[in-house]
Amino acid sequence: MSDDPHHPRLRIRVVFGERGMIGPGKADLLDGIARHGSIAAAGREMGMSYKRAWELIGTLNAMFHAPLVTRTRGGAGGGGAVLTETGHEVLALYRGVEAGAAEAGERQIATLRGLLRDIPDGK
Amino acid sequence: MSDDPHHPRLRIRVVFGERGMIGPGKADLLDGIARHGSIAAAGREMGMSYKRAWELIGTLNAMFHAPLVTRTRGGAGGGGAVLTETGHEVLALYRGVEAGAAEAGERQIATLRGLLRDIPDGK
DNA sequence: GTGCGATATGTTTCGTGGAACATATCTGAA
DNA sequence: TTCAGATATGTTCCACGAAACATATCGCAC
Q1: Among B26, B32, B59, B98, which is most exposed with the fewest C-beta within 10 angstroms?
Q2: CA–CA distance, B11 with B19 (Å, rounded to integer)
Q3: Average pLDDT of A65-78?
């Protein structure tokens, strides 16, 4: 979609043992909610069913000591969802890990990329 | 198995667009082959079927401009597999990315860990 | 009090990755 | 010339997660 297939991408998942984990999916979802103010809209944007988005948010909320997303039902516009302070914090921390890792691994990744076989078939 | 569930772990996957990707699974497999000199033994060690291990090695070999693993059939001991120079190089680069990311994200991850909910059930 | 738009959940269907199973093949050693 | 132990591959089966489908609920606006 909007990602350059020629540039290596780093997908990072932080695993907290049995307590859960957070990766690109949940992060992007939080991001979408922050931008749209709606679980449904965020899910739609990334081609994810409302149900799945809702479930992910549920696990995220249960995972931290305070919910990351608060929801409102009914009302003008039908309701909506917003990131709590903790929500913004967690998202920022995750993005920080991503950015730091990308920078720290820049050299190795470039070298790795150079070792790849030339594209076998341009489709 | 040997991973401390209390300490957050970073799982990193380097994605090269359509050309493939490398993550913990393939890296550990390469590692096992380097240590055991056998695809089968490496697979066994990580509870992976020989077939799956063999397939992963196949995609890895096809992914880079030179094979990462060379195999020998028959002979004393039935055969075996060893990492090529490129194989060692790729593994080292991936481990480097992992290490760099872990170090770079140390702060954020610790903070994230502090935001987790207290364990709900000690099992 | 009806409609709208979003959250909230349950149920069922379905595709896919992996496990399990089954062989075939290779070659040095005994 | 048989055996051992590893690579090499195809086929079938099944669990699990996600998608699809189906409702229910909420509350402001009109």
Answers
A1: B59
A2: 20
A3: 90
